[in-house]
């Protein structure tokens, strides 16, 4: 039995609406968002969905995070605390702004940042906290830590479209800035694209300027008032994203319905830990945490042998162990800002420093691909295969 995948049409919601949207944009003859209407409309619709006053579109989820990091304006060598379990796109913008990523450890069952570990990692050079809603589960407790320390909280919502906190607030609206991805593998897509949301007008303007070479388009003159890059979204991407955004509630409803079915089917299985709040989770992937002696690589191999799209650990190594941070140069042959003096501020990376994250990746975390096109039969086959794999 085959499983729908976000890599092909069977697992995507792309259809007549997106074709019409692209055609509409093409017929205007204007494909740049500077003078077009699609991207500006997308921003208004995204802001309305999240009940915030400001949304800014950009070219990717990584770009969205770069806008956010640039907006909170770290000084060179300042530190931003983040998660060791994420895509490198969470960390690259920190380095690009000459700031230092500091990794706090994670909760051993959700993989989200442990608020106590974050609080312990705050130092005199900490400029922000960048939390990741891993796989679509809300990373709770970070706002209180950020407020106590007087720090901005950036939310990486790339995997967390319409994720809700326990109090039903949407992911992206609890922090200072929320960052979203429209990449091929996300809940909705325009191939590549990003969006940021915020309630802060000053930060919104900084991000809009950073995405457009520091060029304020509202002044009627060609002046560059701040450092910025070209992170503009095209009108074609914006048109597709608008059609996809309209389908987002249906995508989440479908993923949550089938995820609830799998949670119920596996709830009595010893040694298996499942997400606790299926109706607020976004289910980008379906994560399972295993108790020893169950081993994630062994269970993943058994599932793959039955055709179930599963893998162990999500990453080859947690980010604090990745060569890009432990040994590779950042600029030329220099490891600046990672080697910023004084010596007691050089960040601590490598194996043995974040045990919960390391254990999840190497031993306990199993992820199953998830999709809005899964049927009850898909779910029941996965459930049966998981039972066989963990009880064999």
Automatic annotation (TrEMBL):
Q: Name one GO molecular function term.
A: transaminase activity
Instruction: Name the cofactor(s) required for activity, per the record.
Output: pyridoxal 5'-phosphate
Give the residue spans that cross the bilayer: none
Q: Name one Pfam family in it.
A: DegT_DnrJ_EryC1
Q: Which InterPro entries does this entry report, sorted A to Z?
A: DegT/StrS_aminotransferase, PyrdxlP-dep_Trfase, PyrdxlP-dep_Trfase_major, PyrdxlP-dep_Trfase_small
Q: Does the keyword Ribonucleoprotein apply?
A: no
Which terms are listed as keywords in the entry?
Aminotransferase, Pyridoxal phosphate, Transferase
What does the similarity note say? Belongs to the DegT/DnrJ/EryC1 family.
- The name under which this protein is listed is Glutamine--scyllo-inositol aminotransferase
Source organism of the structure: Micromonospora echinofusca
């Amino acid at each position: 039995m085959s499983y729908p995948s976000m890599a092909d049409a069977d697992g995507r919601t792309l259809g007549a609406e997106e074709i019409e949207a692209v055609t509409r944009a093409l017929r205007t003859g204007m494909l740049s968002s500077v003078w077009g209407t699609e991207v500006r409309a997308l921003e208004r619709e995204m802001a309305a969905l999240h009940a915030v006053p400001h949304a800014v579109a950009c070219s990717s989820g990584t770009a969205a995070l770069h806008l956010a990091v640039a907006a909170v304006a770290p000084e060179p060598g300042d530190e931003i605390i983040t998660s060791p379990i994420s895509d490198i796109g969470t960390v690259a913008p920190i380095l690009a702004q000459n700031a230092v990523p500091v990794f706090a450890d994670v909760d051993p069952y959700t993989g989200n940042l442990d608020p106590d570990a974050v609080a312990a990692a705050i130092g005199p050079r900490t400029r922000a906290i960048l939390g990741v809603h891993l796989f679509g589960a809300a990373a709770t407790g970070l706002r209180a830590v950020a407020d106590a320390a007087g720090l901005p909280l950036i939310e990486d919502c790339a995997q967390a479209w319409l994720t809700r906190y326990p109090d039903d607030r949407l992911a992206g609206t609890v922090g200072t800035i929320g960052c979203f991805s429209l990449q091929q593998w996300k809940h909705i897509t325009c191939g590549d694209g990003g969006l940021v949301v915020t309630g802060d007008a000053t930060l919104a303007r900084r991000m809009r300027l950073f995405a457009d070479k520091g060029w304020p388009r509202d002044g009627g003159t060609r002046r560059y008032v701040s450092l910025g890059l070209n992170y503009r979204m095209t009108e074609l991407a914006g048109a597709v994203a608008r059609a996809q955004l309209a389908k987002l509630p249906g995508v989440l409803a479908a993923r949550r319905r089938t995820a609830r079915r799998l949670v119920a089917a596996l709830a009595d299985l010893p040694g298996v830990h499942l997400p606790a709040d299926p109706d607020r989770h976004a289910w980008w992937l379906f994560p399972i945490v295993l108790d020893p002696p169950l081993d994630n690589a062994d269970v993943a191999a058994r599932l793959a042998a039955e055709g179930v799209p599963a893998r162990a650990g999500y990453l080859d190594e947690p980010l604090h162990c990745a060569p890009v941070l432990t040994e590779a140069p950042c600029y030329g042959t220099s490891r600046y800002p990672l080697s910023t003096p004084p010596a007691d501020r050089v960040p601590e990376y490598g194996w043995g420093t974040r045990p919960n994250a390391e254990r999840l990746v190497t031993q306990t975390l199993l992820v199953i691909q998830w999709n809005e096109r899964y049927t009850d039969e898909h779910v029941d086959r996965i459930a049966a295969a998981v039972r066989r794999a963990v009880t064999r």
